[in-house]
Write a structure and sequence with these properties.
Layout lengths: L1 H26 L6 E8 L3 E4 L10 E9 L5 E11 L6 E9 L3 E9 L6 E8 L8 E8 L4 E8 L1
Antiparallel strand pairs: 1-3, 1-9, 2-3, 3-4, 4-5, 5-6, 6-7, 7-8, 8-9
């Protein structure tokens, strides 16, 4: 019987230790959120027209420089957008390649301009490996430029 009590006591101690470890892990501070702002001049667009009613299914393929507010090039962006409806809302997938830092990937619906749109950040590489968050796209200068606010953890 002594052996059984010893095993039970060890099991209780192990359970208490595991409960303490779980409690400590849940008390850990959440990852700090960061914001990155980049600018995209809409200069490298190509259009694929399917000639469907209302333009549904038409595509925009784009590639352009990613810049700071003052126009300094810090990388590039590429994407593909498919028109969803006759209101000119598009579903877009994109990658932003920031030189020497890594890639941020995302997707979502680009609403008819001048409306602001929010995209899900779906992944990344390099400094952005494991990234999660959202990107807000705001068209400015009559769609000639977009401001991307990337909020991530």
């Amino acid at each position: 019987m002594i052996g059984r009590r010893s095993t039970v006591a060890r099991g209780i101690k192990l359970g208490a230790c595991l409960a303490s470890a779980i409690a400590l892990a849940s008390c850990a501070a959440p990852a700090q959120s960061e914001t990155l702002t980049v600018y995209n001049d809409a200069t490298g667009d190509a259009y694929v027209r399917l000639e469907q009613a209302g333009g549904v299914g038409d595509q925009i393929l784009w590639n352009s420089d990613m810049q700071t507010e003052d126009g300094t090039v810090i990388g590039s962006g590429s994407g593909q957008c498919t028109q969803l409806d006759s209101d000119r809302n598009f579903f877009c997938s994109f990658v932003i390649n920031l030189a020497d830092r890594g890639i941020i990937a995302g997707q979502g619906v680009q609403l008819t301009e001048p409306l602001e749109s929010t995209f899900a950040i779906t992944g990344g590489t390099g400094e952005f490996e494991g990234i999660a968050g959202k990107m807000t796209s705001t068209p400015v200068e009559n769609r000639a430029r977009f401001i991307y606010e990337i909020d991530y953890q």
